[in-house]
Write a structure and sequence with these properties.
heterodimer; A: mainly beta; seven-stranded mixed sheet; B: mainly beta; six-stranded mixed sheet; globular
C-alpha cells in the first residue's frame, strides 16, 4: 500500500512570496490533516478535512494560509504572503477514520 | 496549544540498554498515542493506548497510562541504533484530532 505522498520535499522562498504544498493521502482515507512542525517542537494541527469538507480550521492563520481538498482526495496548502516565522516542516497525514494517523515525509519550508 | 509534555527532552543510552520517556497531559482523553520521527522524515505510529487501559505491549515497546495522574510512559527495551529518533506522545479527546508534545530525542550509542 502506497503511503502519503507530499511535494515538494524542500522549498526556499523569500518573505512575502507565495508557496503551495501538495498532499496525496492513502487511497480510501476519508480524513486528511495538515500540521506545522517548527524546529524543536511537536506538530501543530492547522486544518482537518473529512472527505472534502473542513472539520476544524481553528488553528489556521486564515489571513495568509488557505487549504483545499479536491474531490475529497488530494489537498493543497497555500501560504500567501509568507513570513519568516512560517519556516517549518509542513506535514500531511491521513486516516481511515480511525484514531491512528499516517504521515507523509513532510515539506521543509525555509523563508528568507 | 500543545497538550502533552515529554520528559526528558533528550536521552542518550548505550545499545542494549532500556530507554524510558514520560508524557504528561492536561485534559481528559479518549486515547494516547506514541509516534516516532526519524531525522528529516514524517511520523510513524507506534502504539495506541485507550483511556480504560493501563498497559500495552508491542514488540520491544511497553506503554503505561495513568489517567489519575494524567501521565504515560514509553519503555523501549534492548535498544538498537535504529531506535535513534524523536518520540512524541499525542492525545486524542475522541475528536480524531491529535495534540502533540514537544518530544524526546533519543540517541542510541553503538
Amino acid at each position: 500500500e502506497a503511503g502519503v505522498a507530499q511535494s515538494p520535499r524542500y522549498k526556499i522562498i523569500e518573505k512575502r512570496q507565495s508557496v503551495a504544498f501538495w498532499c496525496n493521502p492513502i487511497s480510501g482515507h476519508a480524513t486528511l490533516y495538515w500540521y506545522q512542525q517548527i524546529l524543536g517542537q511537536g506538530p501543530k494541527l492547522l486544518i482537518q478535512f473529512q472527505n472534502n469538507g473542513v472539520v476544524d480550521d481553528s488553528q489556521l492563520p486564515k489571513d495568509r494560509f488557505s487549504a483545499e481538498r479536491l474531490k475529497g482526495v488530494d489537498s493543497t496548502l497555500k501560504i500567501q504572503p509568507a513570513k519568516l516565522e512560517d519556516s517549518a516542516v509542513y506535514l500531511c497525514a491521513s486516516s481511515p477514520f480511525t484514531h491512528e494517523q499516517f504521515f507523509g515525509p513532510g515539506t521543509r519550508l525555509t523563508v528568507l | 496549544s500543545q497538550q502533552g509534555e515529554e520528559d526528558p527532552q533528550a536521552l542518550s543510552i548505550q545499545e542494549g540498554e532500556n530507554a524510558t520517556m514520560n508524557c504528561s497531559y492536561k485534559t481528559s482523553i479518549n486515547n494516547l498515542q506514541w509516534y516516532r520521527q526519524n531525522s528529516g522524515r514524517g511520523l510513524v505510529h507506534l502504539i495506541l493506548i485507550r483511556s480504560n487501559e493501563r498497559e500495552k505491549h508491542s514488540g520491544r515497546l511497553r506503554v503505561t497510562l495513568d489517567t489519575s495522574k494524567k501521565s504515560s510512559s514509553l519503555l523501549i527495551t534492548a535498544s538498537r541504533a535504529a531506535d535513534t529518533a524523536s518520540y512524541f506522545c499525542a492525545t486524542d479527546a475522541n475528536d480524531y484530532k491529535l495534540s502533540f508534545g514537544a518530544g524526546t530525542t533519543v540517541t542510541v550509542r553503538a
